[in-house]
């Protein structure tokens, strides 16, 4: 029997592991684990997402958050940088939440010992959002820590 030219040939889907739920479901599960205090499991779930979707900026951002909570600041910063680069590469219209300059990244820079970088980022954020009280609170926290000699 000859193939019917009027019928479209269905495309084969890309192969995926049997237990792969997808990026959205994987991110949701990793965040659920994190909310329940299961940081190691959340990290494992985030890394599983990135194994199959390495160009997913939300996955890198989430992994950065998890690593920051585990005080793995160097690797967290690398994840945030990678997420920011992927968002820029995608050239999305809306800015990535907390991927570029953000209070979270400013705090991470401070925790890494980059006080100048943290304060410069806070100043940049305050210029853009002068009414954001989180930024003033973070600047005050840094000032108090400096006054106490930390």
Instruction: Give me the CATH architecture of the largest domain, please.
Output: Alpha Horseshoe
Shape: globular
CATH superfamily of the largest domain: Tetratricopeptide repeat domain
**How many independent structural domains?**
2
Gyration radius, rounded: 20 Å
What sequence of helices (H) and strands (E) makes up the elements? Answer: HHHHHHH
Main beta sheet, described? none
Q: What is the CATH third-level topology name of the largest domain?
A: Serine Threonine Protein Phosphatase 5, Tetratricopeptide repeat
Share of helix among residues? 55-70%
CATH structural class of the largest domain:
Mainly Alpha
Q: What is the residue-averaged pLDDT?
A: 78
Number of strands: 0
Topology summary:
Blueprint: H1 23-35, H2 39-52, H3 57-69, H4 73-90, H5 103-111, H6 115-128, H7 133-147
Helix pairs in contact: 1-2, 1-3, 2-3, 3-4, 4-5, 5-6, 6-7
Task: Give a concise summary.
With 150 residues, this protein is mainly alpha-helical. The chain is 64% helix and 0% strand. It has seven helices and no strands.
